Q: What sequence folds into this?
């Protein structure tokens, strides 16, 4: 109940912020910025110069150039998805059997395209691939755990987009711009949470390991040594709660076409697609770790030390990656 | 033996993933197709009409916002609202338009004749850029977003066209990535960091824009 309340407060805080904050979309003007504006009366005389000024916008995490091939796929899938939504909207209420059949075909096209869009979208940044990789390099886990964590992360990522769009329903102006602003803040803050988590886990591991060594020295019977505990996954899973920009796009389209149900269903399918790259990196790390320890399982001392160092390495990787990605966001908050 | 090979393979893949840095990709939020119509008069380049066709997603959001009468088209008043609210902020981003002659690189100080319209649920912007003052010869024209928010592509069919008024010249074009004159961007910059760098400095990353090479 407490957690539910916290989520609601968290979202409402950002929604309130989206109302007063400036936009994260370069196309959209800030309400206070009137330079270069036209009115019908003087539109011929307008001087929309001063293009090297600075517009204010929401802080964001680090970006980089995408491969052209990935862009091409995303471009064509987006086009198929967009066109199919329009066609389905015009056909799905038809009583004509041929049109009904066509609507049925388009329905499955939408779900298929949503799956592919999710898959390629998650190859981009901010979908927790490196986070789960760091996690399963550093900790021993049962085979099913990477599956549960990866599915939870992608479900939360898409689910928070659904909640956000439903909450933005009825607000005037650009829905995507407001959703973008909220997403950028939540994504930045989620990386700050990961930075703090990595620092905490690193220190915790050091303390726990030294206590374990001490205990081992004082205990003659090896069977009496207590196994080192592992921390809960709460912080990692919690960091997945920020709206997916790809899901927001699909939901905005479905919202404006008044086919919200189909939009939500598409986002659910999209999240299954998104979970594949996350699952792949989680199991890559899990299998890599398992393989390494299987190959050296006979050497107990090496296993013990290596296990500790790999754990630390995983947390350092998590810290370094989160810092690297969040650095522009941190700089923005700082200054 | 097979089992061992598989395990070593898993380990190698995990290491490769770690070293690949695949997390550096961005996913643009808006996609648009840019068509350019170069206008010549009396054998001299006058300017270019640019047409941007947006993806259904961004289109639907802006249409929902500004097609107030819900007739599926922007009238003149609605088009002005689109200009004021969903276009003119691009002056901070050089209108995503970059012009080069040799090593001389410029951006249009303004755009003219802006008009927004809707075709089959997709929003289209059309505007004019004055190119009268550019000396005759080779001109490189490009639309791109070095902040990676927007994915801009040129359509394969009719991406570049010419309007020839009282002209006998036969202009030609080709589209290619500019490897000799890249632009640089600051990966640490926030989305409002609109600075474009033409010379590399420490910490900057390289972007190779797709340019239209116009010869006349």
A:
């Amino acid at each position: 109940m407490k957690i539910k309340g916290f989520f609601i407060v968290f979202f409402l805080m950002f929604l309130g912020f989206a109302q007063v904050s400036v936009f994260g979309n370069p196309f959209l003007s800030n309400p206070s910025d009137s330079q270069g504006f036209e009115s019908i009366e003087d539109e011929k005389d307008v001087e929309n110069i001063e293009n090297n000024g600075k517009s204010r916008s929401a802080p964001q995490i680090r970006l980089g150039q995408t491969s052209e091939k990935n862009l091409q796929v995303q471009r064509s899938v987006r086009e198929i998805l967009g066109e199919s939504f329009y066609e389905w909207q015009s056909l799905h209420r038809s009583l004509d059997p041929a049109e009904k059949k066509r609507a049925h075909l388009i329905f499955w096209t939408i779900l298929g395209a949503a799956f592919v869009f999710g898959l390629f979208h998650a190859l981009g940044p901010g979908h927790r691939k490196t986070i789960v990789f760091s996690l399963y390099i550093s900790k021993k886990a049962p085979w099913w755990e990477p599956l549960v964590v990866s599915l939870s992360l992608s479900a939360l990522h898409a689910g928070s987009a659904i909640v956000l769009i439903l909450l933005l329903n009825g607000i005037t102006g650009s829905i995507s711009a407001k959703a973008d602003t909220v997403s950028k803040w939540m994504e930045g803050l989620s990386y700050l949470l990961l930075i703090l988590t990595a620092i905490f886990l690193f220190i915790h591991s050091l303390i726990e390991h030294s206590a374990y060594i001490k205990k081992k020295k004082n205990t003659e019977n090896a069977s009496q040594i207590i196994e080192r505990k592992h921390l809960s996954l709460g912080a990692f899973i919690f960091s997945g709660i920020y709206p997916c920009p790809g899901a927001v796009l699909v939901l905005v389209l479905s919202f404006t076409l008044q086919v919200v149900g189909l939009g939500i269903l598409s986002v659910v399918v999209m999240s299954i697609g998104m979970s594949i790259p996350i699952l792949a990196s989680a199991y890559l790390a899990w299998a890599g770790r398992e393989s390494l320890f299987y190959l050296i399982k006979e050497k107990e001392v090496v296993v013990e030390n290596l296990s500790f160092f790999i754990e630390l390495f995983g947390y350092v990787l998590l810290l370094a990656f989160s810092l690297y990605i969040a650095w522009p966001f941190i700089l923005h908050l700082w200054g | 033996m097979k089992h061992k090979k598989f395990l070593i393979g898993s380990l190698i893949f995990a290491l490769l993933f770690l070293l690949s840095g695949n997390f550096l990709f961005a996913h643009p939020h808006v996609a648009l197709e840019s068509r350019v119509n170069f206008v010549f008069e009396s054998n001299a380049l006058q300017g270019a009409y640019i047409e941007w066709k947006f993806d259904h997603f961004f289109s639907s959001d802006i249409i929902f916002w500004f097609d107030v009468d819900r007739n599926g088209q922007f009238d003149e008043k609605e088009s002005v609202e689109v200009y004021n609210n969903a276009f003119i902020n691009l002056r901070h981003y050089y209108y995503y338009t970059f012009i080069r002659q040799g090593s001389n690189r410029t951006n249009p100080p303004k755009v003219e004749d802006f008009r927004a319209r809707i075709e089959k649920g997709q929003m289209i912007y059309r505007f004019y850029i004055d190119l009268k003052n550019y000396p005759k010869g080779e001109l490189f024209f490009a639309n791109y977003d070095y902040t990676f928010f927007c994915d801009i592509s040129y359509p394969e069919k009719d991406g570049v066209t010419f309007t020839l008024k009282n002209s006998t010249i036969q202009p030609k074009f080709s589209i290619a990535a500019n490897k000799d004159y890249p632009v640089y961007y600051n990966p640490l910059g926030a989305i409002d960091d609109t600075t474009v760098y033409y010379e590399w400095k420490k910490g900057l990353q390289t972007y190779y824009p797709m340019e239209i090479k116009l010869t006349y």
User: Anything to note?
Assistant: The mean pLDDT of chain B is 86. Residues 88 and 158 of chain B are 26 Å apart (CA to CA). DSSP finds three helices and 13 strands in chain B. Chain B touches chain A through 73 residues (CB under 8 Å).
